[in-house]
Q: What sequence folds into this?
């Protein structure tokens, strides 16, 4: 029999897909990639996969790798898709594909299957990553197969199939929205959130953050140390990448930090509405930005800022494993060599306020910047500087006079 590896979550869709793949003649190896999904009994999920007929089922822990090798380089770019979204789901998908392909190679599987639909971005991220890592891989996306869609046109049919096959699922035909979660964030979409007149922040039962209104009435202070662009300490305690994110999720979450509601442009062309919460990463973006402001040269920062929308778009669309991204990641790693320092932030009801920042590599010179008398900046130098800068404008003004 042919065999495949299935990126298995234990939810309704992948549980049905596991059974359907067996009906189609595949031996199925279920792989649950642990990315910090909260409130899930992982051993129960494995047992469920085995009870449903999986030839093998395993957990692969990708939490540290995702934070260290995927999220933190994106953080160094200050990359946000369409200036808002911190890419928490987008970052995870190439890693899931990588880890599933590693298992496929180990067990000798012929194909890689996932539960992403033909309408969303995740199908792009899963497949583009898989094909880049293994150009010969066969990707099975049941939601893009007409036979599967005819069998399961809606949630009612999915649930009926599970009942028929005695597959236990916690699902109902009425659900106000769907969610996807990992240690970086939780995303919420679909269902009632497709109605743009619905207040998403009021509808969603957030899992990582309290509302700013319910946050404490007193600011909480947090100090973050960065070394070469990598967050390494929280409140004086040295941490792994995962520990940094986890600690800041707790601190930011209880202070209502990191909620957004946006309408975004999907790679497949449609607009969609998403509600997100990412307390830890939101704090890290602010913290690193403040260290960068001290330590990075003006022209370097401006070049980075010109390129960061390209990075955000490629991560969002799923182009993680390609030559352009390799070059961009090498660039930002080099750019961050002097980005070392410490920043103290105050968190208050969803807001992040800078209390202090410092760095041994700071390019800020108070003697030059001071507005008081004296200092080491000679204002007479500005006369010649501006005459040279203004030369093209003066020439153009003589040739083409402007009305004023």
A:
């Amino acid at each position: 029999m042919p065999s495949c590896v299935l990126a298995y979550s234990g939810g309704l869709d992948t549980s049905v897909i596991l059974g359907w793949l067996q009906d189609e003649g595949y031996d199925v190896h279920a792989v649950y990639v642990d990315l910090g999904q909260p409130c899930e009994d992982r051993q129960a999920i494995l047992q469920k996969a085995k009870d449903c007929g999986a030839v093998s089922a395993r957990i692969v822990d990708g939490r540290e790798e995702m934070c260290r090798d995927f999220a933190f380089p994106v953080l160094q770019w200050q990359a946000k898709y369409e200036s808002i979204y911190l890419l928490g789901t987008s970052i995870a998908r190439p890693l899931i594909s990588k880890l599933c392909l590693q298992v496929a190679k180990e067990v000798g599987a012929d194909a890689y299957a996932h539960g992403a639909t033909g309408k969303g971005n995740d199908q792009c991220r899963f497949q583009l990553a898989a094909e880049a890592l293994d150009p010969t891989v066969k990707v099975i996306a049941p939601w893009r197969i007409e036979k599967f869609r005819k069998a399961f046109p809606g949630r009612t049919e999915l649930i009926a199939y599970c009942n028929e096959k005695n597959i236990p699922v916690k699902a109902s035909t009425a659900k106000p929205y769907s969610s996807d979660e990992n240690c970086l964030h939780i995303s919420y979409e679909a269902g009632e959130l497709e109605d743009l007149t619905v207040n998403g922040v009021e509808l969603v039962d957030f899992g990582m953050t309290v509302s700013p209104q319910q946050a404490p009435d007193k600011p909480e202070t947090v100090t973050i140390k960065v070394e070469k662009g990598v967050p390494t300490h929280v409140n004086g305690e040295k941490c792994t990448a995962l520990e940094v994110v986890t600690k800041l999720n707790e601190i930011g979450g209880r202070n209502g930090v990191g909620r957004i509601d946006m309408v975004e442009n999907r790679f497949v062309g449609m607009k969609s509405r998403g509600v997100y919460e990412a307390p830890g990463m939101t704090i890290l973006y602010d913290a690193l930005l403040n260290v960068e402001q001290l330590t990075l040269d003006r022209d370097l920062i401006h070049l980075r800022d010109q390129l960061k929308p390209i990075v955000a778009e490629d991560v969002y669309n799923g182009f993680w494993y390609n030559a352009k991204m390799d070059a961009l990641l090498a660039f930002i790693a080099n750019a961050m060599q002097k980005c070392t320092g410490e920043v103290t932030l105050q968190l208050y009801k969803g807001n992040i306020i800078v209390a202090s920042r410092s760095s041994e590599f700071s390019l800020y010179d108070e003697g030059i910047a001071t507005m008081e008398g004296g200092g080491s900046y000679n204002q007479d130098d500005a006369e010649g500087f501006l005459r040279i800068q203004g030369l093209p404008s003066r020439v153009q003004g003589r040739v083409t006079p402007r009305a004023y």
Remarks:
- DSSP finds 14 helices and 14 strands in the chain.
- The two ends are 81 Å apart (CA to CA).
